[in-house]
Amino acid sequence: MTPAQFDFAPLLPAGLPPPAAKWTGLAKFSFVGGNNDPEQVPVEGLIEAVEAVLRREGRTLATYGLANGPQGYLRLREFLRLKLKRDAGIDCSADDLLIVSGSLQALDLVNQTLLARGDTVIVEQESYQGALSRLTRLGVNAVGIPLDHEGMRMDALASTLADLKQRGIQPKYIYTIPTVQNPTGTIMPEARRAELLNLSETYGVPVFEDDCYADLIWDGRRPPAIYSMGRNGGVIHIGSFSKSIAPALRVGFIVAPWAMLSRMLALKSDAGTGALEQMVLAEYCAPHFATHVPKLTRGLRAKLDTLMEALNEQFGTAAEFEIPAGGIFLWVKLPDQVDTLKLYQAALAAGVSINPGPEWSTDKAHSKSRLRLCFANPSHDQIREGVAVLADVCRREFGVPTRSANVEARA
Ligand SMILES: Cc1ncc(COP(=O)(O)O)c(C=O)c1O
């Protein structure tokens, strides 16, 4: 007789998040997540890098942290130091950098260091779902600042900071994705970055700069990082190799003053980020990153064009969007009657996955008829087919678009 299954439920402490759902595979037409273009993973270069670095330094794997200390593989930190100086104007040393397991771990470490239940932070009204959901889980109040075509609006930020101060509330940080904002795709110009820093200094609220899309700009013109423009050490900068090389590698980084970095390091309890990934990235990126990224970006831009064409063809004027300055997402507005949380369910049943707007916003009403589409992962054909299926589902559920490429909706 098989014994009754052991019941773990009575042992679980209070306050755990709900259980994870089992993964059921990617949808046939997947426009979700921050996945990248499979054709653009530099597989041959990574194979060469693996072989070269393992032959040269493989025996250092015997030591936790590759005998380079807990902040990460030194050659990777050196690559980043040079790259951040060249591309983002950041002047830092390898000791100012902490390599982490994707920038999601950076979000966790910053949050664990600074936040307690009941705290308040300032975020962009439309923002990264992974950041918003973490704040909800921590019981932190996220105040959303509206965006325009240059990112977070400074008039709204100024009045929110003044209002919070008047109510005796000191926000713990201002979280921004200034360079190719997720999900709206804008770039905050240098002048607005300076305004943001002025407000940060005036109110004594640090800036938390999440720059993981900064390599993927169509015209390659990246403004200086907010970190590089700060004068009082009140900026934390995070980045990632997920968008420029591959998300499954799980390698990101934090640049911060030692007073913050030392606190985060004390909380990083995994004895170091995967060493092989760090070694391969350093080996590959030092000679190849500068040529890989423009090629990747050209491919992404071509996919964006296919997506915009497909939306114009299938949805006509029912789908409104601004052309993003780079990245892997398009933020789309559908007519007001469309509820994208419902559209998400119906589309999934038809094999199309989308990210519904309310999950990417602090303003559920404003984002109700908006959605985010990732165009990096599907092929050009999948983009065209997937958008056609999405338009059919949307017409069936909400009566829009009233007319698509060749079918008129029944009244
Ligand atoms: C704004 C932003 N920050 C952080 C992340 C996390 O990326 P990763 O942990 O893969 O570096 C993402 C992923 O999509 C993102 O969009």
Q: Main beta sheet: strand number and arrangement?
A: 5 strands, mixed
Secondary-structure element order, N to C: EHHEHEHEEEHEHEHEEHHEHEEEH
- Number of DSSP E strands: 14
* Parts with pLDDT < 50 across at least 5 consecutive residues: none
Distance between the termini: 62 Å
**Count of DSSP H/I helices:** 11
Q: What class would the helix/strand composition place it in?
A: alpha/beta
Read across the widest sheet, the strand sequence of neighbours is 2-10-9-8-7
- Say which molecules are bound, naming each kind only once: pyridoxal-5'-phosphate
Mean pLDDT across every amino acid position = 96
Proportion in β-strands: 5-15%
- The value of Rg in angstroms is 22 Å
Shape: globular
Textual characterization of the structure:
With 411 residues, the protein is of the alpha/beta class. The chain contains eleven helices and 14 strands. Helix 4 (129-138) links the parallel strand 3 and strand 4 (141-145). Helix 3 (102-114) packs across helix 8 (258-267) and helix 5 runs parallel beside helix 6 (190-203). Bound molecules: pyridoxal-5'-phosphate. Pyridoxal-5'-phosphate binds next to helix 3.
